[in-house]
Amino acid sequence: MSDSAAELTTHEQVHQRRIDKKVNYQVSATDKVITVVIYTMFSIFAFICVYPFYSIIINTISANDISARGDVVFLPKHIHFQNYLDVFKIPGLGNAALVSLGRTVIGTALTVIASAFLGFMFTQEDMWGRKFWYRFTVITMFFSAGIIPWYLTMRSLHLTNNFLAYILPTIVAPFFIILVKTFVESTPKELQQAASIDGAGTMTIFFRVMLPICKPILATVAIFAAVDQWNSFQDTLLLVTDSKLYSLQFILYNYINQASSLSTMVNLQNAGSTAMASLATKQTTTSIRMTVTIIVVAPILLIYPIFQRFFVKGIMIGAVKG
Amino acid sequence: MQTQPYRTRSISIRKFLYILPFMILLGVFAYYPLYGWVYAFYDYMPPIPLSKSPYVGFKWFHSLVENRVKIDQLLQVIKNTFGMSGLNLLFSWLPMIFAIFLTEIKAVRFRKFIQTVTTLPNFISWVLVYSLAFSMFSSEGIVNGLLKQLGIIDSPILFLQSSHHVWLTMWMWTTWKALGWSAILYIAAIMGIDDSLYEAAHVDGATRMQVIRHVVLPSMLPTYFVLLMLQIASFLNNGLEQYFVFQNAFNKDSIQVLDLYVYNLAMGGGSYSVSVAISMLKSAISVVLLFSVNGLSKLLRGESIV
């Protein structure tokens, strides 16, 4: 792990040097104008990228009546967290969170293991039909039967309203396999040879030698796979009608289209249990929808800044063709 | 000496057996759905199973063009597909320009901040994008609220229900989501440029724009070419999610791309067989496109992209 960190710093140093060289132009008046234009344009685009998230967050923690008037623009007003307590009174939301969490944890674990194993096995030159099976795997990135044929065959396999439908199709992921294979090929062959001479079998070499070495690339794969699982919406849309198996993404989509009835329901519950909710914490269509949005996006917002370098690394290795 | 080849062979087979379960999974989830294409040749009406459905040959393929109304509908869908894929293709150079100018920023922290922030939207789902869009642009959304506060408008502007400029707004959302992320490959290409090229350019007294024009841009063209070819190959595959979530009664005519049309036909209208027929044609054309651009790449660069 410390090795990869060191490697990253040197990479970054090289990058910085390259950028310094690239930007080492003759400073003229036009150059200064260009600099100002560049900084302005990027600042505007960055603002457009971030503001939707920011504005929804401050609206969910502001008094709901002020928020509904459109008064919350840059800073939250009359901060409260009642919205976040209230949305969990909506039946099904807690369950959907469990489904999303479950598929993310289980799906990611299996995808990482399978990608690591297959990425490693496809480097084993003495495997029967290695080239054929590698092509058999990679080529699936370039064609698809189509959504409806896929749906019809999934149904014939009884994978509708079945939690396995979230997991099984994602286990073998060609892109991740390419990432791991490229990584394994960059490690010295002597490691495997030495272990083999010591009498280690394929499985021992994989678990004892390769798996520890592959940690950095597997972290990248894990992050990608987890984001994919968390964001997945289409499989629920096509294959699931049982509300017990709804994912958070799917439930959010439903809420956007029917939040008004939900806000009435939450308000009724509140009226029954405690004193009449004040205007500031009374749920509106908008407050419910925004709060659920933040709950669904929160895991991404939290992990993204921490793992950003893994994402970047992943796409760069992926760019070196497998 | 006799046992040695046998032993090697048995190891080789055993290694294959280790990956066999995974190859079966791949067979089931990536190859077996191709079998679903047979539905295009039957008059399939659920819940009657396929085995009891009558074989109708190419009836559904003919039915796509059997009368004016159907032809018009299909043409509209194809027009939408071409319009939206075309817009994306037309602006496919944007990530390259983004990368060039991003690496013109000297201040490390500012550049890192911009890169982090602009790649973020790539990691949220289309449902979330739609939810953000709804919160910002619906009739009770933040933008309308702000405009009303400022007294610019009296009644809310219906951004999302509009049937105008749908292609353009869809392109804008795609760009918002993907621009920063797509630039990363080009940033990598820029980082791969040899220092000596810059030094030579500076010795020759090149200006900032001349360095970009004569050093940076040429070294990014190979990357651009490959990505452009892949984009052309997937011209018909707009995907379903983005158009599905943004779809409503008002913009349906101009938002239905092939993927969404196929979905609506089957899941909305129950016309599975017709929808599979269109899927088949689409996949066939996509494969032809892929082979064409691959051939083109071999011809122009002597290197295949797939």
From TrEMBL, chain A:
The keyword Metal-binding does not apply. InterPro entries: MetI-like, MetI-like_sf. One of its GO terms (biological process) is transmembrane transport. Residues 97-307 form the ABC transmembrane type-1 domain. It is a multi-pass membrane protein. Its main location: membrane. Keywords: Cell membrane, Membrane, Transmembrane, Transmembrane helix, Transport. This is Putative aldouronate transport system permease protein. The lineage of its organism: Bacteria, Bacillati, Bacillota, Bacilli, Bacillales.
From TrEMBL, chain B:
It is a multi-pass membrane protein. Gene3D superfamilies: MetI-like. It holds the Pfam family BPD_transp_1. Residues 78-293 form the ABC transmembrane type-1 domain. Its main location: membrane. The chain crosses the membrane at residues 16-42, 82-102, 123-147, 167-193, 214-236, 272-293. Keywords: Cell membrane, Membrane, Transmembrane, Transmembrane helix, Transport. It is found in: Cell membrane. GO terms for biological process: transmembrane transport. The keyword Manganese does not apply. PROSITE patterns: ABC_TM1 (PS50928). Belongs to the binding-protein-dependent transport system permease family. This is Carbohydrate ABC transporter membrane protein 1 (CUT1 family). It comes from Paenibacillus taihuensis.
